[in-house]
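Step 1: inspect the first sequence and its tokens.
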Amino acid sequence: MTNIKIQEVQFRDAEFICKLMNNEFVMASLNEVPTTVTDWECAIAEWNQDFDEADYIIFCDAVPVGWIAINGLESKDKKAFIKMIAVLPEY
């Protein structure tokens, strides 16, 4: 993989996150259940109101390949943590 970058999650990314999180391997690895694009649109709307969390799409060149969520950004001890990271299996 070359030219890896991250970009803040936007409302339009709900379709990609849905595809990612409904991938058979990802669901099995994370013990997740199937979700809809609407589920992710609602989640993104909530994330946009939560200043303690930041969510990013991971790109390889211009192709979205994963999602990372970081929490604890406003914690008193200043210790943020990765809440979720998922990458398409082919990457």
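Step 2: inspect the second sequence and its tokens, then contrast the two.
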Amino acid sequence: EIAKFYKKAKDIQEGVYVIDIDTNGPGYRAGIRIDDIITKIENIDVTNMLDLRKAIYSYRVGDSIRVEVLRNNRSHILDVELAKKPTI
């Protein structure tokens, strides 16, 4: 799991807003931070949670995916290596 997400419709037009992230997870290690807005996975537009899930679940654990995020009105491209969700 990259992070927990929530779309804040009043603040952004398209994308998925990051409100929480596991600091031990692959997304955080790759540079995804709270308040980032995920806009693309491998050049595929992400406009909502369904888009994000479809994009991520089309890859396997161990795959590296390019994630585009908007942070402070600047676009950043991050390489995220997918990992298994830890069991509690």
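Step 3: confirm your contrast with the notes below.
DSSP finds two helices and six strands in the chain. The two ends are 13 Å apart (CA to CA).
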